[in-house]
Fold each of these.
Amino acid sequence: MRQDTQERHVEHIPGLTNNEAEYRAILSALGSLPNDTHVEVISDSTVCVMQLLDKYRVLEPRLVDLKQQILVLVAKKKLTFTPKWVSRRDNLAGRLLSGR
C-alpha cells in the first residue's frame, strides 16, 4: 500500500507460489514509481528479501526471471532500491490484503 495515497493494487493469479506473488507485487510497485525515486520495499518474505539482497541464491527459474525483471526496471528507472524484511505481524500491507 502506498503510504502517501493509501492506494493498493490486488491481483489474483491462480497457480503462483507465495514467492512468485511477492516478486510480482514488488515488480508492480516499482513499475508505478517515477524515475529517480528512492524506495524501501518492505516485505515479510525472508526468501525474497534475502534473494534481492544477494544473500540467498535464486534457484527457481521463474524467480530468476522475476528478479531479473526487477533489477532491469530498477536500472532503467534509476531507482535507489532497498529491500527490507519485516515480520508478518508487523506487515501492515499483508494484514490489509488478508483481511486481518
Amino acid sequence: MREEYDFSAGVVGKYAARYAGGTNIVLLDADVACVFPDSKSVNSALRALTKIAERRVKAASSLSPEKAAKR
C-alpha cells in the first residue's frame, strides 16, 4: 500500500450489507467462463434455458399419467 493512502478514518464494511443485498455472485468454472464474455451473455443464456425448462415442465404436467410414465 502506498504511503499517501490514508484509511485511518475509514469504516470497515460500511457498504457491505447494501452491496450484498443487491448482488448475487456466482463463480463459473474456467471452461464455462471462456464461453461467456460478460454477465449479460450469461444472463441471456440462463433466461433462455429457464424458458425451455418451464415449457418442458408445462408440457409434462399436461400429459396423461400413462403418457408421462413413458417419458
